[in-house]
Amino acid sequence: MLLNLHSHLEGSVRPSTAGQLAETLGIPPPPQGWKTAMTMASPANLTVFLQHVSSVYPLLGTRDALRRVAREAVEDAHADGQDYVEIRFGPGTHVRPDLTLSHVLNAVDEGIREGAAHTGMPAGLIVCMLRHHSPDINAAVAQAACSLAGSAVVALDLAGDERLFPDLEPFAPMFAAANAAGLGITVHAGEAAPGRAVQDAVQLFGTRRIGHGSRLADDPALLTWARQEQVCIEVCLSSNILTGAANSLRDHPITAFLNSGCRVVLGDDDPITTGMRASDELGLLRSQLNLTAAHLQQISDTSIDVAFCTPQTKAELRERLNTSPACSPNVVRHAAWKRESACRTTRYWTS
Ligand SMILES: [Zn+2]
Question: Contact 108/67 with Cβ under 8 angstroms?
Fold first, then answer.
């Protein structure tokens, strides 16, 4: 049983697909090739991390490209042995003179639904507002997301460079609209800014799901508050090391979160950027952090509880959890995928 609740579309583009899209568009490859441009070799900060993620942006300027990468992202998640995935992206980035916000969002929505239909694995789409975009663009993104509630779109998020754009208050009306439309809410917070940003996001927007939240562990009082408020942290281990949100795997705050009784779920954030898929992140939990069976069970239980999916999908996932090990990829699919995968099973921080 493996649920991947934090995964970005732009960091999931297959390098082979990037090469084909570039060739079609007449865009020359980066000097070291697409895979090197997309994958981050060593830890730095969130700004550098996002530069790697954005290397594929010029390739995503058509409806066909967006639909294709969305479908492939679901297919790759399924092949990785995942049972459910929520893929997120920032549509405002991909708008062009001949590609409206509606075109962008509908293309990705279709791709996610195609991937889910093709694999038989449920998948949801989370729409991200971006901190560096104007209030007008973010308001339009939120409105477009609300209009697709009930399709693949399941939630609204806020992403982007928290270090450069920490202000949260301008986003309150957008999250209120999402809530009214029946969408879930999750917010990237406490990743590059102090842990207090998590408290601000919960109090301002009413969300209970927080992307990363790593800095929360710097303050024991905030950890106690997060447990009492049942805040759920979407943990992405390898991403946190590459962005500097955690100094090392051993120092990663997931242990503090679990020991404090905080709710935790897993994501792979940007699997091509990190070179690590959700099953690899699980491998780190098992082999490097020695989490107990109770912790793994708790992560799977929480993942089903907080997933932005229908009650029917939750019931099916719970039934599957009763017959398969917690926090474990589908072994058959996973083994086949590993022979083909562009990602690695170990990175230097695991040694
Ligand atoms: Zn993220």
Answer: yes
**How far apart are the CA of 304 and the centre of ligand 1, in A?**
19
CA 263 to chain centre: 17
Given the residues 10, 72, 114, 191, select the one marked as catalytic.
191
Express each pLDDT in 145-204 by its tens digit: 999 999 999 999 999 889 889 999 999 999 999 999 999 999 999 988 899 999 999 999
Task: Pick the closest to residue 116 from 156, 65, 71, 151 (CA basis).
Answer: 71
Closest CA to 4 of 270, 185, 284: 270
The span from the CA of 183 to the CA of 11, in Å, is 23
Q: Per-residue pLDDT tens for 69-120? A: 999 999 999 999 999 999 999 999 999 999 999 999 999 999 999 999 999 9
For residue 315, report the distance from its CA to the centre of ligand 1, in Å: 27
Write down the pTM of the prediction.
Answer: 0.95
- CA of residue 50 to ligand 1 center, whole Å: 10
* 3-state SS assignment for residue 72: helix
Question: Running DSSP on this structure, what letter comes out for residue 171?
Answer: G
Instruction: Render 112-130 in DSSP notation, one character per residue.
Output: HHHHHHHH---EEEEEEEE
For the segment(s) 3-340, the CATH number from 3.30.70.20, 3.20.20.140, 3.40.50.720, 3.30.10.20 is 3.20.20.140
**Could you please report the per-residue DSSP string of 146-165?**
HHTBTTTEEEEEEES-TTT-
Domains of the chain by residue range: 3-340
Catalytic status, residue 191? yes
For residue 134, the CA-to-ligand 1 centroid distance in Å is: 20
Q: What is the SS3 assignment for 187?
A: strand
CA of 323 to the centre of ligand 1 (A): 30
CA of 332 to the centre of ligand 1 (A): 28
Specify whether the CB–CB gap between 11 and 53 falls below 8 A: yes
How far apart are alpha carbons 233 and 137 in whole angstroms? 27
- Bridge partners for 99 per DSSP: 96
